[in-house]
Amino acid sequence: MGRQLHPQPQDIRNTIVAQLSWSHHRTIFSRCKTEEEREFYLRMSIKENYSVRELDRQINASLFERVMLGKINIASLPKEFSQDITNAFKDSYVFEFLNLPEPHSESDLQKGLIKQMKNFILELGRDFIFIDEEYKVQVGNSDFYIDLVFYHRGLQCLVAFELKTEKFKPDHLGQLNFYLEALDRDVKKPHENPSIGILLCKDKENEVVEFALSRSLSPAMVAEYQTQLPNKELLQQKLHEIFENNNIEDRQ
Question: If 0-12 CB within 10 Å is exposed, 13-18 middle and 19+ buried, where does residue 171 land?
Fold first, then answer.
């Protein structure tokens, strides 16, 4: 009988299952409706080393639905974005742990994220390392301050976050690109990759974002944030409608 040279899908699945506790499995299989959703949370629990409490929070925050919808939006990003980069960031973030009032200021948002840094890192992903808030860069004789700066271990680059408590406007990107240029010229080390910018807005229109990014020279992304847990049923319905529309187009 021949020797099995390559692991089969079932072997890989069994390996994944064996790495998690019974409580993880009970949470995933009792709360996730589809095989795709269960597989997603199994893999994310291992990748991000979720505790059961963290896993429960991500399911409550509809991480699966947001990532699936985000992949559709991220598909319109410039071609220079590698798959590694698009996998490292989300199209939307949920900061329900901040308990911010509506409306709130950019200062309130920044202070809340700093105070809740552990939960913020959990929402971003564990490869993010916090460097500083109001990070100073000097251009000529002028000082400028970036809201939040992180380092991403997997991508080996600096990540600048600019916070906007308003709807996305194309001119926001000019400010962010300016910061990225300053980081790359004066802060980035020779072995590191070009810095990436994330513009975190209260709201955005995908078509406006696509147009604004189409001529952007720096690797920048626009994501939206929510201060309340999203409506899971509405997200599931939106996913279902997109899949149905794609199936209709494929049959035509």
Answer: exposed
